[in-house]
Amino acid sequence: MTKGEPLLKIDALRLRFGDREVLRGIDLSVHKGEVVVLIGASGSGKTSLLRCVNLLNMPSDGRVTIGGEAIYNASPGARDGNGVPIRTVNRIRAQTGMVFQQFNLFPHMTALENVMEGPVTVKKADRATTRTEALDLLAQMGLQDHVNKYPRQLSGGQQQRVAIARACAMHPQVMLFDEPTSALDPELVGEVMKAMVDLARTGMTMVIVTHELGFAFEIADRVIFLDSGQIVEDGPPKEVLLHPTHPRLKSFVGRFHETADLLRPFLEGS
Q: What is the mean pLDDT of residues 31-41?
């Protein structure tokens, strides 16, 4: 990948479930260190798009490249076919980290063990080195006093921060977040958002699906609005959220100022 090329590039991506077309020709480029936030009404295709990046959803057509290598490339004339060898898919998939709505931690492992599991088991990394890195990541998430606790002993916000640390432990090129605060109680949302803001400031490339428009305004380099499986607006948050042009987006961001005012106390000084 030469300098200036996108780290993540999506071309003419389509996704169908039976007769229903969920994504209708998506083109998107994300550069190294960029934070891109996907917004849109439920059913607009934003989560489906995110899941196509690492093939949790198998696209129907198009091309997805990460670091200049194709993880999905529809074969000409093939039906729902990926022209990329499975070994290549698995290697490139490992370059993405994903944080879901639900925390998906191993309940029988401590926070530290959850973070160490991927590097040690999948990458065969040295256990002592991995432990040091895992402790550092948990400290970055503000969890240095909870490393030996099991998920059941942690709050939802703490569990989600463990999940973020676990994804970071694999040293991904791109971090994907699928509404990471939607399953949290309102008082716990801010601590996870702050952890994500801190992560963005390290230069991590991030693609985030969220309904929290105030958070999108604070963290995003670009905000993308999807409607009916298509990108209809794409630009800096001040343009997309404060000066929307698409009628559906104008309606969608009507609650933005109220949301931003509620979130600002959590993010100030972060």
A: 97
Q: Where are the alpha helices (DSSP H) in the chain?
A: 46-53, 86-93, 111-121, 127-140, 156-168, 186-201, 213-219, 237-242, 247-252, 256-267
Structure tokens at 146: 């909870």
**Residues sharing a CB contact under 8 Å with residue 153, sequence separation 6 or more, in sequence order:** 146
Q: How confident is the model at residue 80 (pLDDT cuts 50, 70, 90)?
A: low
Instruction: Tell me how far apart the terminal alpha carbons of the chain are, to the nearest angstrom.
Output: 33
Q: Which amino acid is at 8?
A: L
Per-residue pLDDT tens for 224-236? 999 999 999 999 9
Joined together, the tokens standing for residue 145 give 């006093």
Q: Considering only the C-alpha atoms of the chain, give the largest distance between any 2 of them, rounded to a whole number of Å.
A: 55
Pairing of strands 222-227, 230-235: antiparallel
Provide the pairing of β-strand 8-17 with 96-99: unpaired
CA distance 205 to 34: 5
Residue 232, C-beta contacts closer than 8 angstroms, at least 6 positions apart? 225, 226, 246, 248, 249
Q: With CA atoms as reference, report the closest residue to 55 among 84, 12, 22, 26.
A: 84
